[in-house]
Amino acid sequence: MAKKKAAKKATKKTTSAKRADKGHDITATALGRTTDLDALDKKTLQLIESTARRVEVSINKRVLPELKFPIRSLSNVEYDKSVGHFELGKGRKSRALTVNTVRNFAQTLRLMAVSKEMVENDDFATKREAYYVSKNWGDAKFNEQSESDGVMDDIEALASLDGLSREQLRYFPEEHGGSLAGNLVVIDRDPETGAEIRIDCTAFGTGSYSIPHSVEHLEFETDAKFIIAIETGGMFQRLNNHKFWKSASCILIEMGGVPTRATRRFIRRLSDNKKLPVYCFVDCDPYGIANIYRTLKVGSGNAAHINRFFCVPQAQFLGVTPQDIIDFKLEDATHPLQTVDIKRAKDALKNDPFFKSHKEWIKAITALLKMGVRAEQQALAKWGLNFVIEEYLPKKLRDKKSFLP
Amino acid sequence: MAKKKAAKKATKKTTSAKRADKGHDITATALGRTTDLDALDKKTLQLIESTARRVEVSINKRVLPELKFPIRSLSNVEYDKSVGHFELGKGRKSRALTVNTVRNFAQTLRLMAVSKEMVENDDFATKREAYYVSKNWGDAKFNEQSESDGVMDDIEALASLDGLSREQLRYFPEEHGGSLAGNLVVIDRDPETGAEIRIDCTAFGTGSYSIPHSVEHLEFETDAKFIIAIETGGMFQRLNNHKFWKSASCILIEMGGVPTRATRRFIRRLSDNKKLPVYCFVDCDPYGIANIYRTLKVGSGNAAHINRFFCVPQAQFLGVTPQDIIDFKLEDATHPLQTVDIKRAKDALKNDPFFKSHKEWIKAITALLKMGVRAEQQALAKWGLNFVIEEYLPKKLRDKKSFLP
């Protein structure tokens, strides 16, 4: 399928061939990648090959083959406060090859084959592209992307049991990550030559670094003391233009609403590798709290099989907190809670195991409902455009006990 | 309002003071900026001061003051094919100071005062921030952002007559621009020191450069032959990861749907300054054609006062064209046109002066309606993930006559 370019072809084929020749014994250096990444690529290939081999063995024995996947639903989710995110339970569903399942069975194997080819060629596909690739599969083609997404989610859930994410299967999200500025050198590699590339995130002027789709291969150097994850582009630009990252010795990351997978994974890896605390700075409303912050910190209920990779359990809620509305006299810069806000807040209190397990959050959300208002991070501009830089953030950062868990 | 930071304060105040002392005779070097930018800053200050002075003179004469703004509606729009975008007509509305208009009158003057302060301090505000700043104005505060937006649109329309955009008034869009990779050095300046910063957009590995909110001060160095403006993040990432910008000697810009103001202005300035053609690569559907491409090229009907800054009249439509669906055998990777698509296409043919004035577009849209399908740029993946790089784009770029106007 993926044809290769003349120049590139030679090297790639050699790499591919070497890999094939040596089975799983290829070395990291042969690929010019980091050891870490290679170990995961090997694991991915092993998973795909062993799955395919089981099917082959069954067929050779004249036994109808069967594929087993974790059940992806809330009924098969386990929550442990000490782990900090929803995890997959032990429930499995089988997909035996029958007249009814033959198309889906073939599609699953073909998508895994595409995955194998992409790992070997160091390529990737978006979910949308994967759907279109199937248009050349004759009867096995997908009619709707929802079909290919479903099959991919099954494969992803299967891979997650081996500690592999969809990105390792080379299916990348459509959206890349947010923007970043601050005291950080990102170490990437040249996609052609594998040579190291050092990206100094203090050197973008009024612009910034845009986080790529896949961040597994990135490494970091930093002397920053913490990461601030910011809801809006406007606030990010203000902090960046005034070089808040320099005066506060930190890294600014713009989430742009609910953070994408790439943004979450980037923050998680950066925070893990460099032992950096993560402070979340969003609007004081049920969306900022229960959608943006909660997704960043513990993941989401209906994607339990990926939370372990994408959540940032070390994240803390810097603000804007309900108490900030009072402490910073923002009452006349608030807006009334809408019906949807109230519903979301009540849902959080009643049904969300994360909020229910933290009395600070129960208190804060209850207070917000009682006040009946919401306050955006821009509301701080009431006291001057740069009040947020000169007063709000320094004061909050001096008193980290005011952060919510 | 905008308090300044201790360290920065000294320099800024000096600059501000110098400016005030010398009136409009300050030199570019005193600010450490480019001549171009300074000329515009001076013009902005002149506009605000002369407007305020007229009001002051009236009041001193005991005459009720009056402000005059261009009428912002389709009834006051002129279209000239040779100009290539909608322009403001000569219609003006007056806002005299009366009991009924006093609040709005005061708000207009205060927003202009904020603008003046921001130019002097080299600061900026988003529209949302500007709304919040008013919360400290007592009776003159805005109750809804729609109010402050309306007043700002009036000021913007007024400024546009002097060739000034909202960005020059220091009101920046909430959203920054898209991502960029390729043969380009962006020359920015350090927001603190004014020192030149050179950003090499070939040096970001799998990541990319994120275009800032305001791009007026940027300069460029490039040996690229053209710019490709791309609809989706997925396609941008594919072309970037495979370094298409290197093999084709070009600059890749991700629009992410309908391009933001910053993206449009960036493309326009880069293309103007470096005489680079702009090729637009979007889905073959009425949204890609009539929303994304048309907005990029000629602007929009209800924002005629800003089109002159933000449209890219030199843009051409590379694809995916309706003819491409046939030429590249994509029929089985298409989807039926939805009702909304059909409506949008028919509207374009019937009401849109841009499409109506180009027979190639009338033919193409008519053909699309007849085929009854739409094709996404990812549909090319039917022939392999990198078919777009190895076959489609090279073939299209060899035959630029196949581009639509």
Automatic annotation (TrEMBL), chains A, B:
SUPFAM superfamilies: DNA topoisomerase IV, alpha subunit (SSF56726). Residues 1-21 are annotated as: Disordered. Residues 103-161 form the Spo11/DNA topoisomerase VI subunit A N-terminal domain. It catalyses: ATP-dependent breakage, passage and rejoining of double-stranded DNA. It comes from the Bacteria. The keyword DNA-binding applies. One of its GO terms (cellular component) is chromosome. Its EC number is 5.6.2.2. Keywords: ATP-binding, DNA-binding, Isomerase, Magnesium, Metal-binding, Nucleotide-binding, Topoisomerase. GO terms for biological process: DNA topological change. Belongs to the TOP6A family. This is DNA topoisomerase (ATP-hydrolyzing).
